[in-house]
Design brief:
This protein has 135 residues and is mainly beta. The protein contains one helix and nine strands, in the order E-E-E-E-E-E-E-E-E-H. 13% of the residues lie in helices and 36% in strands. The relative contact order is 0.35.
């Protein structure tokens, strides 16, 4: 996927679908990522969707409202600014929020390897069963 956007474009806090890893390469501009380890999931007030859809949270790590999201105080944030020509790699189920600091072009790809293949296959099978049941 290619993401194009002006400064200020935000991708809300989420982790990617099907338990995939992700790399994001900054082709033009600068982008900030705020990330959380999978162990912080319980603190991020996420929606209970199944993993094949990924998970999202309305918690905004750039302007934390701990009155609305009190458990988020227990989550440990990691922040990085990815400059033009740099790549960030996030392992499976790592939460990330992103904001373009300048007009930006980002190239993104999800992937699996021996670390997450078993989870990926189990989630894919569950998704296919759910799809077949809807027919």
């Amino acid at each position: 996927k290619v993401f194009l956007g002006p400064a200020g474009t935000i991708s809300r806090l989420h982790h990617d679908t099907y338990s995939t890893h992700v790399w994001l390469s900054q082709i033009r501009g600068r982008k900030q990522f705020i990330c959380y380890a999978p162990e912080d999931t319980e603190h991020l007030h996420c929606h209970p969707e199944d993993d094949y859809d990924g998970r999202t949270s309305l918690f905004d790590p750039s302007a934390p409202d701990f009155n609305a999201f009190p458990r988020a105080r227990n989550a440990r944030a990691f922040s990085v600014v990815v400059e033009e020509g740099e790549t960030v790699v996030l392992p499976s189920r790592w939460w990330h929020w992103a904001k373009s600091l300048t007009p930006s072009i980002t190239l993104m790809r999800n992937f699996v390897n021996e670390v997450n293949m078993k989870d990926y296959m189990q989630i894919m099978e569950r998704a296919q069963r759910a799809k077949a049941q809807r027919k």
